[in-house]
Amino acid sequence: MIKIKSIGGNEGGISLHGFLQEDLEKMEGCILGGHCWMRVVNGKPEFIKSYHPLPDPITDEHMFPFWRQSTEDEEKHPQNYELFNHESFGDYESPSISIRYLCGFSYSREKYKEVAERLESFGFQCMRSKRGDGGHYWEIWFLIGLFMAKGELEEFVSRGANHKEKLKEALEFLRADRGISFGTLDVSVQRLALSNPD
Asked: Residue 88: which residues within 8 A CB-CB, separation 6 or more?
């Protein structure tokens, strides 16, 4: 059973008892970010989200089609996945770059805006998760492939003769650019892909 006790004094306050740990996280989201409303029904907390949820990628019709429609000939062959060489990537592959924790330990609203705008000018897109019960979310800055590089980054990438050299140029540029700070940078190379029956 939930109990709420008023605390007197000049500043005032309340103490809350009987909440589960998962309820406390949701309450944090209520108080700090206004992400949901709370009420108590029959002695138990009930939370209602204050924002409309993001469309579910499975049911959001604007997301379709995830793959192109297969032809009649392709329908006759089973779809399978192809494992690519782990030692190198071919001419048809372009590694993607993911950046997380913008500004690292030097976060400020102004600094974040500056770094975000700089990454956008390089061709990166911001991808965010749904908000959790506590109102927190994950954010990743994503460049789907070096062929999508823009601006100054594109100039550096174009110096490389092949994908490995282009990646080396891109990483050196992002590492040395004093206008960008981040917590982690990951490089991804295609390992599995839907193969063409031909």
From this structure: 164
